[in-house]
Amino acid sequence: MANKQQVEAAADIARGLLGEVPSVSSPASGLTELVRRFALIEFDVPDSSDSDGYLFQYGEVNWFSEPTFELSLVRQLEVVDLSGRWEAYVQVLFEFRYPLDEDLGSVDSHSEWWFPGNEMPFDLWLDSVDRSPIVGLLSGKTLREFVILQERV
Predict the structure, then answer these.
(1) pLDDT at 2 (0 to 100)
(2) For residue 21, how many C-alpha atoms fall within 13 Å in the half-sphere facing its CB?
(3) Chain-centre distance of CA 48, in angstroms?
(4) Minimal CA–CA distance to 89: which of 70, 75, 99?
C-alpha cells in the first residue's frame, strides 16, 4: 500500500489542512471544503467499500458540563490486525460545539452515513450537507469551539 498514510496520523493530517481553507468558524464557512481536501488523502485501510466512510451528525449532547449542541462531519477508517481481520475503527471528527439554546434544543438529532459505492457521489453528498437547514440555523449562532479529534472505536 505505497503512498498511503497511516490511519493513526489521520487527525494530525486533518489539522495540517486547516491553513489551506479560508476559515472554519462555522459549518457554513469552510467545513465541507476542509473535508473535501481531507478526502483526497488515502489511508492504509482494507480495499472494501465500508473501510473508509463519512458521517454527518448533529444534535444535543450531554457529556459536557454545560448544555451543548454539536454538529460534526466524521471520517471513519477501518483498522485491521496483521492477519487482515477487523480490529477497530478510527474516527476523525470535525466538530462544532454550540451553547444549547431554545432553537437548538428543539432540533431533532440527525445522522447520515456516506460510503464509496453509494448512489450519490461524494461531492453531491457534501453539497447536501452544505444545504442542510441546520447549517443555516447554526450560521446565526455563537460558536463555543471547533475541534478536530481522533477516536478509536
Answers:
(1) 64
(2) 21
(3) 20
(4) 75
Matching residue, cell 461531492: 123
For helices 31-39 and 122-131, angle between their N-to-C axes, nearest 10 degrees = 170
135-152 CB burial, b ≥16 within 10 A, e <16 = bebbeeeebeebebebee
The predicted model scores a pTM of 0.93
124 within 8 A of 54, measured Cβ to Cβ:
no
Q: Are 14 and 94 in contact (CB under 8 A)?
A: yes
DSSP letter, residue 33: H
Where are the chain's structural domains?
7-152
Amino acid in the structure at residue 118: N
Dig out the grid coordinates for 89 from the structure: 475503527
The tens digit of pLDDT for each residue in 14-39 reads 999 988 876 777 777 788 999 999 99
Query: Per mean pLDDT, which range of 22-26, 52-56, 110-114, 135-139 is the poorest?
Result: 22-26
Residue 98: enclosing H or E segment and its boundaries? strand 86-99
Rounded Cα distance, 81 and 35, in Å? 27
Q: What CA–CA distance (Å, rounded) separates 108 from 89?
A: 26
